[in-house]
Amino acid sequence: MRSTASILHLDLDAFFASVEQRDKPSLRGKPVVVGGVGARGVVSTASYEARKFGVRSAMSSAEARARCPHAAFLGGRFDAYREASGIVMARLRELSPVVQPLSLDEAFVDLAAGDDFDPERVEELVEELRADVTRRTHGLTASVGVASSKLMAKIASEINKPDGAFIVQPGTEADVLGPMQVTAIPGVGPATTERLRRLGVATVEDLRRFTADDLGAHVGPTTATSLYRLARADDDRPVEASRETKSISVEDTFETNLVDRVQLTAIAEQMARRVAQRLRANGLSGRTVTLKVRYHDFETHTRSTTLTGPTDHGGVLAATARRLLDAEDLGGGLRLLGVGVSGLADWVQDDLFSEPEPEEDLVPLPSRDERARRRGWSPGQDVTHTEHGDGWVWGSGLGLVTVRFETRESPSGPVKTFPADDPALSARASVSSVEP
Ligand SMILES: [Mg+2]
């Protein structure tokens, strides 16, 4: 472990929901839930206002609606998220060339690899960074942790979250970590937590009473070894600028093309549960869930979604796999199905929870507007009206669409309802140009 606090972890606060509140003035200070809006949708991010009602990421959207019926439920605008992420990652690269993004809203930075890093000025560096992020993204806030290891930097960024920072002074790592719940250790998922609870382990200090061998009997040798070390804040993993994609997947080729959606859904769920078992057996958890399908004509698609937090939970993975399959057109049937989870989220992943887009290579691509019209308006989507100007879809159904006319710079705006096929209304790009 290094002797200076020179690994920085930055995590944007309630990222997707914050981008929505930034761009939709009427939602500021209100509960907002971003995620799958369909019957089987899963929450991706909840604003802090929604979290007060018990809404959490990876919860089913149905449960979130039951807990917080007055929240705004939005389908997500990946272009806008990617733009904000690009701005933040570029700012981090000004600190050091060694930046390891974990997802759109989270990254490690090896400050010591930067040109003029001064360990005496970490506090100033952090406050300048956080202020710049907020200014350049037009109001998003970030939480930052700095420590001598990745483990402690990540934990430190949670301590004063949201909109805060914590610097772990070298030498104090074990003291900072000791009183925390074992779930503070990244990778300790629900299954491991439950097994540890049965051993009477709640905090990291409790964990330190056990030898690695003792733990191994309960959580498996691999998990035990890493738990033993991490409980003592012993972590020398380097910040890796190039992502190493670790993934666990299960796939199956069928003897005959399968066309029955119910049967395929059952298979996908079963595969997801097998992936979860393998994750747990290896002491891993992952955030990006990928579904792979091969059609009768050998055309192969993969479709992924990134959860806001890592999971090794069979139920969550099964629900996510099911949702991904729901979005696939089964056409003439499938000859192969696979489900995988990667430990490091692919942060340049395409739009994750929108409705399926038509295949682009064979059919001429319909305009954004036409695609939106074909699939119906999506809640939260950016639109423009020839008479009323720019706004966003507040809700739709029964042949009608309701739009709130406001933008990032405007005050809270009025709501108007139109026929869903009103030619005066069209979809609008979320960002005019995407920053590198
Ligand atoms: Mg975040």
Automatic annotation (TrEMBL):
Q: What is its EC number?
A: 2.7.7.7
Which residues of this protein are catalytic?
A: E106
Q: Site Substrate discrimination: give positions.
A: F16
UniProt binding sites for Mg(2+): D11, D105
Give the principal location in a single coarse category.
cytoplasm
Compartment list: Cytoplasm
Keyword Lyase recorded: no
Tell me which Pfam families the record gives.
IMS, IMS_C, IMS_HHH_1
The family annotation for this protein states: Belongs to the DNA polymerase type-Y family.
The job of this chain, per UniProt, is described as: Poorly processive, error-prone DNA polymerase involved in untargeted mutagenesis. Copies undamaged DNA at stalled replication forks, which arise in vivo from mismatched or misaligned primer ends. These misaligned primers can be extended by PolIV. Exhibits no 3'-5' exonuclease (proofreading) activity. May be involved in translesional synthesis, in conjunction with the beta clamp from PolIII.
Provide the protein name.
DNA polymerase IV
Organism, per UniProt?
Aeromicrobium alkaliterrae
